[in-house]
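Why Peptidase M1 membrane alanine aminopeptidase domain-containing protein? Reviewers of the renewal asked for a concrete example.
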Amino acid sequence: MKLKAVLFSFSVLAYTGFTAQNIQNNPGSNHGNRFEQLGTILPTPNIYRTASGAPGHGYWQNRADYDITAYLDEDKRNLKGSETITYYNNSPDDLDYIWLQLDENEQSTVKNAGFQFPSTLPAASNDQQLKVTDLPEKDNGYGVNLEKVTDASGNPLKYTVNKTMMRIDLPKVLKKGEKLVFKVDWNYNIPNRIKMGGRGGYENFAEDGNDLYTMTQWYPRMCVYSDFHGWQNHQFTGRGEFALVFGNFKVSMNVPADHIIGGTGECKNYDQVLTSDQMSRYRKAESASEPIEIVTLEEAKKAEKNHSKQRKTWNFEANEVRDFAWTSSRKFVWDGMRVTIPENNNKVMAMSFYPKEAYGLYRKYSTKAVAHTIKTYSEFTIPYPYPVAQSVEAANGMEYPMICFNFGRTEKDGTYSEGTKNGMIGVVIHEVGHNFFPMIVNSDERQWSWMDEGLNTFTEYLTEEKWDNKFPSKRGPAWTITDYMKLPKDQLEPIMSNSENIIQFGPNAYSKPATGLNILRETIMGRELFDKAFKTYAKRWAFKHPEPADFFRTMEDASGEDLDWFWRGWFYGTDPVDIAIDKVTVAVPDLNTPPKEAKETKYKVEKPLQNTFEDISKIRNREDKSITFYVDKDKDLQDFYYRYDRGQEKPDAEKEYTVKTEAGIPLDAKDQEKFKNLTGYQIDFVNKGGLVMPIILEFTFEDGTKLYDKSSAQIWRQNEQKVSKTYYFDKKIKSIQLDPMRETADIDTSNNVWNSTGTDTQVSKFQLFKQKQGAGPVRGGANGKVNPMQAAGKKS
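Here is what the prediction returned.
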């Protein structure tokens, strides 16, 4: 197929434009700031965080190691715990107090953060939802009960509880490089998370009288002290998740003897808590390529019927993790298999725990999805470093190091819908994926939900695509975000918003950042550049505490792409994408009209062409004897100036100087045949939404062929409201489609199409003639006009 599309680039031809629209209007009057650098919006680089987005040579982070014992009282639904924390001050600062998180206080009616939401009278309610208002609110008995806070020697430490945060005042300053060892004993009543909400608690199965426990945010945890925030002690309101410190954990859980436990890290005493048959199956699972039931469905059903009064203690250890979570129930079926991460040859136990109510789905898919997730995320980020990865069916979705809680139950007869299956696979991928963001790349979720949820949702989308190319992903593809982007501005917030202040939390923290990253990968940067930069970010900030600027800067530093316009628009703004084809001007060449004769403008030089005002710089430069002025003696006019300044020559009244415009010559028969089918198309675009994006076009020609072209977003840099682009083809266009693959999140595709029969078309002609040999383009100034001083350099 012979098809030429050129943009103002004829090598042997000259032309005159068909309308004045070929030259963009001076954009100064409508130029915005979309392409300006982020500048002072980002924090100033320093020795801790560099301008490249990498940790600086002075980067530091504190550390906390935990030794915890826990006692689960199933009858009272109470958890009792005791912990020893070793806190390392690696900061350059001396600390006279420290902060801990008491997240379970959010379940208390009197100890919670006190962040209330507006409320209105419902149209209908039920007896479970409706309760008589108590003012003041009565204590519901939930929240952390602190029994003892002491130093390593048992001496009491002074502390203050402020809602979900606890400050411990130190008896002496904790200096740089020192460590602090202290102890906390506590207990709390475990809430019914199905009724009360929240991430941790118990779920009761009325049919068999058993509970399933998810123990999360269950122990007093150290707050992060950092170079960019100091103490991150923002209250826990139930939404914004966690900022946590890396460390090593040793945890012992004493539970009913018929319970099965899954937890962060590795169990160190399976041989003491499992039956011989279960231990044998676990050994087989360690080398299996398909999931093997370690605790079988039959064993789980049998355990449901007999509530043991005996106790067992499970011992777990986990290194270089920021948190610890666990689950306990006699209802669990447990399966596992070995998966090897190719990038680091790490042999990981992928495992799943689930009640019989989820058996039909989880037995088929859960552990395989776990294995697929850690392998795929390892390709796009860093190799999975931990020894286990676990999925627990608990009718919700929440993530912790090496363990996560998901949903996915079948109907009572074991059947399930495609929607339930895909939802279950999607949530397993998402929650297991959180091992990378934020469990390893340890961002501050309390402040920046998108650095956790958005980056993870994006990588989840890549992983779902590699699970099943037809997987019905709801977050990631550009077209899935348009309904959100259409909302009125008063219902939108920038992605760069605090977690607690977001109205549309799901779209804002999950979908929009994930979509933005996918647009960067597929449309703006390309996969190779993006993937390299994204892996660089993950590698730089693995087991560290990144901030948004570290991500933005790394993505640019590792790719060589200036993306400030994208961060500014997509992350800091709320404008949508709505680029429209405003008008198309079609022009055909006029091959028969002879070219106009060359024009000459003649004038006489009465005096040298010099500046009319002697400014201070010129005067001082003449007075400065160290300056030697360069005089171009090779040009006639400059030579005239040189002689005139020295009184050697006066203006010649008879000498004429000429500005001459070169003309072309008519096309010969061969050229006329060559260009008789040429058609020019000027496409005028208007930016209705405000957010700039690349212009992607699909041309469909009258012969049925198609051609694609993409202009980068920088085409808008001098005029952010409207821009034109001209093409020349040797066949006629039938239609033009803007953004044919819906890859820019354009909220209105009705204005993205032009048809040759449409009313928004102007038809004109342009002259086409042959350029004289040796003639070059006339050079002009910013307005395209001839500079008389330049042109006067040659005599007529």
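The chain has five domains: 1-60+466-574, 61-117+130-196+219-237, 246-440, 581-588+677-767, 598-664+777-792. This is the kind of structural detail the renewal will allow us to pursue systematically.
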